[in-house]
Design goal:
The structure holds 2 protein chains of 2 kinds. Chain A is mainly α. Chain A is built from 14 helices and 2 strands. Chain A is 36% helix and 1% strand. Chain B is an all-alpha fold. The chains are: A mainly alpha, B mainly alpha.
Chain lengths: 391, 368
């Protein structure tokens, strides 16, 4: 383990040097902008980790990646029988061809409901230390549990799921092969899905990565200018740092509301349900619930109201719309939002301030952001094990 | 006072006939084996009206696909008219759906009698993964999105929709569903013309030679007790993977030993006492004339099959109730018994027209 950490650190350090070096020889800095160096710490004093190549996927010691487990996880990921009414597989809201999200501003959710947040991409989710928009889960296994059983998501009962799997001999055989159990067990379902997510939807070959690895032609001149802006004037690096391009911290951006919460009864139901089921104070919070309070639901600290975890920017070409409530459909809208210093909502992070980017700078920044995405990682839905009559 | 007697005060011949025909019933009457339906339970009209809306509203299920009325359809005697129940999408049940009518008067609910309170019964149906698979917290937010419900809960139960109030409102509606003026009650009230002669003879067999009243007694025609009959297993349990899944999951969730075996052990799954294996609660025979499938697993699809089964003394099972023994009924006697049973139905079932669908309305954001 220590050796693994050391190796990871070495890779990080190496990619750091590479990143700084390569950007040093990037195209000339934009006019009227001092050739600022990337800061070593955010305005709030947190050390900034340089951009770079993603290390190997972190793997928890109790859920090693094995091909048979990954294959099993793939079957489960695409199998709608993992949901209560057999309508909604993981892939229903995390479609590979839609950037492993669902393409909507707010997720569709389980039948009879409409979800309240944007369906986040599964791509590179294996790198996060916390999952979901407000970091509600601490592992992919835990995330899978919440998604499978959540009333707005899979709405399945583990006993039911286990017995469904037990009815398909191929599943029974695969679970036995991978986990050594005579009957499929729910915790192993979570492990298999997590193993699949650690092995397959991982993207480490973007133009940016190729640039870091020394491919001088990987990024255009505009993109190289954008990379410098990202780390300097555009201030993206204040939160989107490190190889994952996320500080994994929580920030309030003052985002505009998604209008659906004003207009769609099912979205209103989902919003109130979240307030009710998360145990916030009735009088103060539930009765006035009008917006997603983000991290506050977990900490109940007023200062955490409206804070959401910084998402990775990798693969963002494939993952529109953007933000926890999907209010932006294009990178242009996102860049304009940050250029204006964020939104008007309360509690906004002091890290946000007007950027005064020129039109050309915005174009360069977007060119770079697009180069953080690789080719789509597509997985065809597999043939699923069939039920057979038990004797 | 014997209600049979009042209609037979006139001609001498009739009196003689009365004693001949009614001797078994009269004798049985000493132990009060049969009785008219009890008076309707007290309910509040506003709660009933609210409960009726909820009974027909699919918002009470997880995916909004089924309401109570889906499997307890008023047009089908508050059952589903099926041999085995459908259950929640992705599941298929392994038992026959009991009619919801007269549930308010029963002391034990479900085929295995695992519940005894109407509000509990409603809760179990709404939340069970194989019935309606809903979370009460989500259901109340759905109802709060319907102005008629906000108003209805306030009027009927003095507050906004809550899960407990949902259960109580549906329970209030269930209490109003009961048999009324069926031919048995009319005979018991002295109206001998309520049954044609063959069915009238059938009633005597029911209370006499056929021995039905040993278990099917009292106002609801059930002893509220458990018996093993040796009913043949429905072959679908051995052919339909979805029924097998549903069966195993049910017994697993009850912590029933040996749940992986494809069989329905009845009361044993609840008590875990070996002596309770294959015992099921005696169902009420009120409204049995409306039913098309009988027994806990719908093993029989006609009353003739049911009568033949009991005439044989039940089926082969080690735990069989000693009350079951061959009856030696003749073919005409069987026909008479069936004629009686098939007339056990209220002429005017409870008013059960589905209420108008209530639509979601947008609320003012932030005013909850």
């Amino acid at each position: 383990m220590r050796r693994l950490l050391a190796a990871t650190a070495a890779i990080l350090a190496g990619s750091t040097l590479l990143a700084w070096a390569t950007q040093g020889e990037a195209a000339a800095p934009p006019k009227a902008t001092p050739a600022a160096s990337p800061p070593r710490a955010t305005d709030l004093g947190r050390p900034i980790r340089p951009l770079g190549l993603l290390p190997d996927v972190p793997v928890p010691p109790d859920n090693k990646i094995m091909p048979a487990k990954v294959e099993l996880g793939k079957l489960l990921f695409f199998d709608a029988r993992t949901s209560g009414d057999v309508s909604t597989s993981c892939a229903a809201c995390h479609l590979p061809q839609l950037g492993w999200g669902d393409g909507g501003d707010l997720s569709r959710g389980y039948p009879g409901t409409q979800h309240w947040r944007n369906s986040q991409t599964i791509l590179n989710s294996a790198y996060y230390r916390k999952l979901f928009w407000a970091g509600e889960s601490t592992s992919l296994e835990g995330q899978a549990d919440s998604a499978l059983t959540g009333n707005l998501a899979g709405n399945v009962e583990p006993d039911t799921l286990e017995e469904r799997l037990a009815q398909a001999p191929e599943y029974v055989r695969r679970f036995k092969q991978v986990f050594g159990t005579s009957r499929p067990q729910y915790p192993d379902v979570l492990k298999a899905i997590a193993a699949f997510e650690r092995a397959v939807p991982i993207s480490r070959d973007t133009p940016f990565d190729r640039h870091i690895r020394g491919d001088r032609k990987a990024l255009s001149a505009g993109s190289l200018r954008g990379m410098r802006l990202y780390q300097t004037k555009a201030r993206c690096i204040q939160c989107h740092d490190g190889p994952l391009m996320s500080d994994e911290d929580y920030h309030a951006l003052g985002l505009p509301e998604n209008e659906q919460f004003k207009e769609d009864p099912l979205r209103q139901i989902a919003l109130r349900y979240q307030f009710y089921s998360r145990g916030v104070q009735d009088a103060r919070d539930y009765r006035t619930a009008s917006t997603d309070l983000g991290l506050y639901f977990q900490t109940l600290r007023p200062a955490d109201t409206g804070k959401f975890r910084t998402p990775s920017l990798r693969e963002l070409v494939h993952t529109a719309p953007y933000m926890h409530n999907g209010v932006f459909f294009s990178l242009e809208e996102v860049v304009d939002f940050y250029d204006a210093g964020g939104g008007r909502g309360p509690g906004k992070s002091p890290l946000l301030r007007p950027l005064r980017l020129s039109k050309a700078e915005k174009q360069d920044l977007i060119a770079f952001l697009k180069d953080l995405s690789g080719k789509p990682i597509l997985v065809a839905p597999p043939d699923l094990p069939e039920y057979e009559v038990a004797r | 006072m014997n209600p049979f007697r009042s209609a037979h005060i006139a001609p001498f011949l009739a009196v003689v006939l009365f004693f001949v025909i009614n001797a078994p019933v009269t004798r049985a009457q000493n132990a009060s084996p049969l009785a008219q339906m009890p008076k309707p339970l007290p309910v509040k009209a506003e709660q009933v009206e609210l409960g009726r809306k909820l009974f027909f509203d699919a918002r009470l299920s997880g995916d909004g696909s089924l309401s109570c009325a889906t499997c307890h359809d008023p047009a089908r005697g508050f059952s589903d008219g099926k041999v085995l129940s459908d259950a929640y999408p992705g599941a298929r049940h392994f038992r026959n759906a009991l009619p919801a009518i007269n549930a308010g008067h029963r002391r034990l609910l479900f085929w295995d009698g695992r519940l005894s309170d109407l509000a509990d019964l409603v809760r179990d149906h709404i939340t069970d993964a194989q019935f309606m698979n809903a979370d009460g917290r989500l259901v109340i937010e759905r109802l709060r999105q319907v102005p008629e419900y906000e108003e209805g809960f306030k009027k009927a139960l003095g507050g906004e929709p809550s899960f407990g109030r949902i259960l109580n409102a549906v329970a209030a509606y269930l209490k109003t569903l009961q048999s009324k003026d069926d031919p048995l009650d009319r005979v018991l009230a002295g109206d001998e013309a309520a049954l044609p002669p063959d069915a009238r003879r059938g009633l005597d067999l029911f209370a006499g030679k056929a021995g039905c009243v040993a278990c099917h007694k009292g106002p609801l025609l059930t002893d509220e007790a458990f018996h093993a009959l040796g009913v043949p297993a429905n072959k679908e349990l051995f052919e339909d993977p979805l029924r097998q899944i549903t069966l195993r999951r049910f017994f697993k969730s009850l912590g029933s030993p040996g749940y992986t075996k494809i069989q329905d052990p009845g009361l044993y799954a609840i008590t875990k006492r070996p002596g309770d294996r294959f015992k099921f609660r005696t169902p009420s025979l009120r409204e049995v004339g409306r039913r098309s499938a009988f027994m806990h697993d719908g093993a029989f699809t006609s009353l003739e099959q049911v009568v033949d089964f009991y005439d044989r003394g039940g089926g082969p099972v080690a735990e069989k109730d000693p009350l079951l023994r061959p009856l030696g009924l003749s073919a005409p006697e069987k026909r008479d018994l069936v004629a009686f049973l098939s007339r056990l139905a209220s002429p005017h079932p409870p008013d059960a027209a589905a209420p108008a669908k209530l639509e979601y309305r947008v609320r003012k954001l932030g005013q909850n």
